[in-house]
Queue: 2 jobs
Job 1
Amino acid sequence: MSDLIIETTPRPGVTQFTLNRPDKRNALSNALIAALAEAIDRARGSDVVRCCVLVGAGNVFSAGADISEMEAQGIEAIDNSTRRRDWETIEKFPKPIIAAVEGFAFGGGHELAMLTDFVVAAEDSRFGQPEINLGILPGDGGTQRLTRVIGKGLAMRMMLTGEPIDAPTAESVGLIAMLVPSGKALEHALDLAVSIAKKNPIGAMLVKESVKAAYETTLAAGLEVERQAIRLAFARGAHVEGMRRFLSKRRN
């Protein structure tokens, strides 16, 4: 197990992944991405893990891809089969995962935060895609995911100028789901993770699958994904406990 990712269980049913390169502002080296994918894969196969939280060490989420690797290896540093496979492992994680952002999430770090299901961020945090300052462009999905979330205009402004946006702006355009006081992002993310972990895990995974379809398919195809998901939820008995509890409360 790599020390680039610290894996802990701070609350019942919740696993916390900490990006652990504080001296490099948690830059996403190939080794770190591989370690995160390995940890994610373990969580995927665990019946105990219901929800995950992703955070950066040292009060910074991530400065982005490892520039020293890119300078030494060129395009192979960020576009190689192993890194693509590891990134896909993270992207396709079926369980809920929350990003807790303090400081900043830039470049690949911002793209990693967008891979999670939603972001809890400190009010003084910042988000950006500064790759243009290096003469390149986002290479881990930023041109596609950011544009889908915040729209063409602001996405273009961020990527063409390289200038970050502050947390209140990010919240106003739907990039982050919850704005909290500085130093409290992890605490609030864990509280939300506990709440999610108490829900039926089948229902939670099907919610994630269906919402992701809204970004990746047509409306008609997305509605079919939703119909099949609700059928599967009933078929696997995801509804039984919750509905019985609801009806019991009404009778009382």
Note: Residues 219-235 form the longest helix (17 residues).
Job 2
Amino acid sequence: MRKEFTYLGRLFAVICVAVCVSGWAEGCRTRGSGTPGEQNAEPVGLSGVLRLSGSTSMEKLSNAWAECFMERYPHVRVSAEFVGSSAGIESVLSGGADIGNSSRSLKESERAEGAVENPVAIDGIVVCVDPSNIIDGLTYGQLIDIYMGNTVNWAELGGTDLPVVVMGREAGSGTRGVFEDLLGITDQCDYANELDSAGAVMARVSSTPGAIGYVSLDIVDLSVKVLSLEGVEPSEESIRNGSYLLSSPLVMVTRGKIEEQDELVQAWFDYVYGEEGQAIAGQLGYIRIR
């Protein structure tokens, strides 16, 4: 019952956010009267196009921020494409985007090219199965065995006699990189399907008997069954206290430090790090960092 209420609560919060985002946007012009330097000093005549590119896991968050930001600055247009973390970082480094959305930390090779990561929130990674699966939870060892192809039938774990169908994200996905790295199985997974978005993973898991996959905590809904890991359910509290280990940083990558960027990019980060920007992140199901 507690798990059901968790899902319903999160689903209700997402619906409320969708209804209220226009209200937030309207409030963007009047809020921000707190800490000096946060959002009070709006650049005069701010205009132009801000280009975002990257993680599909950050689509909902980026779009919510973009809508409010454009309401605050009506002469600014925020353009966003969601093509995966690695592609977004590459776009920033090549000059194709101002900011790269990434659900993983930067690689040393990317840092060497001048990429700088700016954490904006934290996202949990949820392991889910199709709703008919009778398994409620796994140990990390069992999860590793499943993804490495050592466990191939749910009956081996006390479940129904049904083949395990392993779903995951495509190569270059930030969520996939974090998931495999945290479990110590980078480039060792035996995937049946590699899908290009978190939504696609959840849709395929929900409709495939025996399927298992991983998605962002903020998008999970009642179409799938979420598994506990080592007896711990994924939540903001369990991620913050470290009892649930699967989480990923959400970062916005720039080429060079924020203070080296143009006025428009700096204004964006002032908003994202401000109270309103972080409140939106929290209400959308992400873990705020400020």
Note: The chain has a mean pLDDT of 88.
